[in-house]
Structures are given as structure tokens and as C-alpha cells.
Design a protein that fits this description.
The chain has 289 residues and is α/β, with parallel strands linked by helices. It has one domain: 3-Layer(aba) Sandwich (Rossmann fold). The protein is built from nine helices and ten strands. An eight-stranded mixed sheet has the order 3-4-6-5-7-8-9-10, with helices on both faces. It is globular and about 50 Å long. The two termini are 18 Å apart.
Length: 289
């Protein structure tokens, strides 16, 4: 029988079980075991919510001194539940070391699209109806408020701190990488929208390369095979944008830089790239110890 750090089959099933809570209609709602919610604010007073999922072994007595990688994930409302439960079988089958997942919400009280287009974009782009170009402020919020709160509250391993995002979240991850790679050890960029701002991330990398010979980080990038011409896209081509950006990074021979990039095959679209890409990223970055 397969085991994971002494975690039994029964314990895995308990971790998967729902904790019933009361609903207005008298029904029971599904609550993810081992999860918690934290409310936080930016320095300007904008409110966000953090959704945190600890892995099955986190509360076990034999792990009371163990520290875990924390994966900070943008678009929390969209991706937290997938990210929280998708790794459970990998934990059990010992193809993945246990990790803590932290989903960051959109700004509370704001329209989600407007919140993400502001927070996750590196420059202002007047072609968007909503405000753009707030990545600098958002990165300060993540690194100076969100990360310290999580690392005070949970047994995390700062040397394996990870930033993850999809689409514009991947754009933000690339911005953070090229702004100051020391904030995170690992970056997961799924279907990154490198097209944004007339390929502003490529320009940022050009500036970074002129001033730096090292890029100490591990980066995983993945895009679906339908996110380009094969999928009928005409105005954007995420597949070839990622291929070109990966080639650009490799051509620099940055010291301390490790890259894995993949085009996910078998008809993977922008809507389906996250679950597969995210789990593959985790298994590559955090093999069982």
C-alpha cells in the first residue's frame, strides 16, 4: 500500500471529507477541510481575502516542526479550490511533497475583471476600459502584507516560496520575476498573457538583461496547444509568445536560472490549461522528500 509521510488511506479520506456548515436554506454546504480565510488590506485601505489550504499532514504530531512551501496564487476566486484539492492524490502517491496553497482574492467590493486588470498588469494600456498598470502596487501588497502574514501564521519554508498565476496572473508573475526575483524562489506561469501592453514583459526582460547577469529563480511555464492558431485564435498567440519568451530567457544564460516550459497537448484551451499545468508545475518543483 502506498504511503505519504506516514499519512494513511483513512487520513487522506478524512482530509477529502466535507465539514458541513449551515446554509440559509437549511442544507449543508461543502467546506474544504484544513482551510482558513484571512482578511487583509493594502496600505491604501483596499480589502482582499486570503484563502489558505494546509496539506493533510500539516496537523499531524510527527510533522509539528516541519516547514512547507507556500504557493501564492492569484485569481483566488477562480483557482483556489482547484489548486487546493488537485494535489491530494499526488501527496498520497508520493509524487509531490506537501505544500500550502494561498489564494488571493480580487479586491472586495470591486468587479472582479476590473480588479484583476488593474492589479495584474505591469503598465497602463489605454485600450482597456478598466484601469491597468497596478502591478507595482500589487506586488508591494503581496510581498509586504500577504507573505509576512502567511509566514507568521503557518509553518512555511521561505526558501521555497512560490508565486503562481494564470493568464494575466502569469503576466504578473513574470513582472515580479523581472522586477526583483528575490521575493520568490519559484514562479509558475500558466498561459501567460505576454501579449499585454504590446509585449511589455519582453521589454521588461530586455531592461533586466542589460543590468543583470543572474536571475536566481526556477520558472515553470505552460500553455495549451489550442491557445494559438491551432485553436483558431487570430488576435493573440499565447503558444508562440511563450515559446519566444522561453527562447529569450535561455539565450541570456542567466546565472542561477532554471526553466521548464511546455505546450500542453491533447486539445488544451485557455479554460483548461490551469489544472494540468499547475499540477505538473508542483510535481516538478516539489518532488517528494
Amino acid at each position: 500500500m502506498l504511503k505519504n509521510s506516514g499519512v494513511s488511506v483513512a487520513f487522506i479520506l478524512m482530509a477529502l471529507a466535507a465539514a458541513p456548515i449551515a446554509c440559509a436554506q437549511g442544507q449543508s454546504a461543502y467546506a474544504v477541510a484544513g482551510s482558513a480565510v484571512h482578511d487583509v488590506r493594502t496600505k491604501s485601505g483596499r480589502a482582499y481575502r486570503l484563502y489558505v489550504k494546509t496539506p493533510p499532514g500539516y496537523s499531524q504530531p510527527e510533522n509539528e516542526t516541519r516547514r512547507y512551501p507556500a504557493v501564492f496564487l492569484n485569481d483566488g476566486e477562480l483557482f483556489f479550490l482547484v489548486a487546493a484539492v488537485a494535489p491530494l492524490l499526488s501527496f498520497y502517491n508520493r509524487t509531490l511533497d506537501e505544500v500550502i496553497i494561498v489564494g488571493v482574492s480580487y479586491a472586495l467590493g470591486e468587479e472582479p475583471i476590473a480588479s484583476r486588470q488593474r492589479d495584474l498588469t505591469p503598465i497602463a494600456d489605454k485600450s482597456f476600459k478598466n484601469e491597468t498598470g497596478g502591478a507595482a502596487d500589487y506586488l508591494v501588497f503581496i510581498t509586504e502584507t500577504v507573505v509576512p502574514l502567511i509566514e507568521r501564521s503557518y509553518r512555511t519554508d521561505p526558501s521555497r516560496r512560490t508565486l503562481a498565476g494564470h493568464s494575466l496572473g502569469g503576466t504578473f508573475g513574470a513582472y515580479a520575476l523581472l522586477n526583483d526575483p528575490s521575493h520568490f524562489a519559484n514562479y509558475i506561469l500558466i498561459s501567460p498573457a505576454f501579449w499585454f501592453g504590446d509585449h511589455a514583459i519582453a521589454a521588461a526582460e530586455e531592461r533586466y538583461a542589460k543590468a543583470n547577469h543572474a536571475l536566481p529563480a526556477r520558472v515553470y511555464m505552460a500553455v495549451g496547444d489550442l491557445e494559438g492558431p491551432r485553436g483558431g485564435l487570430k488576435s493573440v498567440d499565447l503558444v508562440n509568445d511563450q515559446i519566444a519568451f522561453a527562447a529569450r530567457l535561455r539565450s541570456r544564460n542567466y546565472q542561477g536560472f532554471i526553466l521548464r516550459d511546455e505546450v500542453l497537448s491533447a486539445d488544451v484551451s485557455h479554460s483548461t490549461s490551469f489544472p494540468t499545468g499547475f499540477l505538473r508545475a508542483l510535481e516538478w518543483m516539489f518532488p517528494p522528500q
